[in-house]
Design goal:
The protein has 284 residues and is of the alpha+beta class. It has helices at 13-20, 24-54, 59-67, 79-88, 108-125, 133-138, 149-154, 160-168, 263-267, 275-281; strands spanning 74-75, 89-92, 95-98, 105-106, 171-174, 185-189, 194-195, 200-211, 214-223, 227-234, 240-246, 272-273. The strands form four sheets. The protein has a six-stranded antiparallel beta sheet with strand order 5-11-6-8-9-10. Strands 1-4 form a two-stranded parallel ribbon. Strand 8 (200-211) and strand 9 (214-223) form a beta hairpin. It is globular and about 50 Å long.
């Protein structure tokens, strides 16, 4: 017989005596079961830690890409501006070359998308992100309609970027300015209208500042009328905003299993939505 030592408070004296009198084979079985349970618990905790660490903080990298973008130009949503955008994100031999010209016309969603692609390419260059060719092709700017593919989702009316982040699980969406960090993507709504008659702006958040008692929101984008650059507006002018923080860029591969067109975003060219519906569609 083997005498087992139980922890203090694990049972009364009679229980301890009965436990000590168990055969060695039974004790071995008990110890084995306890060890297996401990190992299972260890791997469960390890798996949870791996999932948590998988979500990274890429805001500083996003800000680094803004520094590489040109300054100035002019704001335009013309057909020529869209053609210039396509040529600015040249895809060759499995790599994006982001070469926008300061002299070219540009628009807000195109500007933020170029920064997004630059961030993805920077992660690939550092060996921190691997994407297959099919996924990379999905990032190419073609003549996609609103809601179609990655670019069509990003460029759509309403919460295009936030909807894309929610659908592919690229990161978190939120509408609380207190949670915002420089480098978050932000869709600004100048009014509460969403969809057909909306008035919005795709930007990258840079921070807030106080001027003579008034809080201003700083952001980067292609702004009207001067094109690429920073701008500040009183926070009171922003009716609503949805922030999107890039955390899991590897999930871009999920686009290969997603519907080719997001029906909600595609509908916003001709129909109206609401702030409540937009938030719900983005997981808020």
């Amino acid at each position: 017989m083997t005498q087992a030592i139980l922890p203090a408070g694990s049972g009364d004296a009679d229980t301890i005596v009965r436990f000590r009198s168990l055969p060695d084979c039974v004790l071995a079985f008990i110890y084995s079961a306890v060890n297996r349970r401990s190992v299972s618990l260890f791997f469960a905790v390890l798996g949870l830690a791996a999932q948590v660490s998988f979500a990274g903080d890429y805001n500083s990298l996003v800000l680094d890409q803004i520094k590489q973008m040109p300054q100035g130009g002019r704001y335009s949503v013309s057909r020529f501006a869209k053609i210039r955008l396509q040529s600015s994100a040249h895809f060759e031999s499995g790599k994006f070359f982001i070469l926008p010209s300061a002299a070219s016309p540009s628009f807000c969603s195109g500007a933020t998308y170029l920064v997004f692609i630059r961030t993805i390419e920077a992660l690939r260059a550092r060996g921190e992100l691997g994407l297959d060719y099919a996924t990379l092709e999905q990032l190419i700017i073609r003549d996609q309609r609103d809601g179609e593919g990655i670019w069509g989702r990003w460029n759509a009316n309403g919460p295009g970027t936030a909807r894309l982040f929610h659908e592919l699980r690229l990161g978190s969406n939120f509408d609380n300015f207190d949670r915002a960090k420089p480098g978050d993507f932000i869709k600004i709504f100048w009014s509460r209208r969403v969809g057909k008659t909306e008035h919005g702006h795709s930007t990258i958040f840079l921070g807030v500042e106080n001027r003579f008692g008034t809080q201003y929101v700083r952001y980067w984008s292609s702004n009207n009328p001067s094109g690429y650059g920073e701008k500040s507006v009183p926070r009171s002018k922003i009716a609503y905003a949805i922030f999107s923080r890039l955390e899991t860029p590897a999930n871009l591969a999920r686009i290969n299993g997603a519907p080719s067109v997001d029906r909600y975003l595609a509908s916003l060219l001709r129909t109206r939505s609401s702030i409540a519906e937009a938030g719900a569609k983005c997981g808020l």
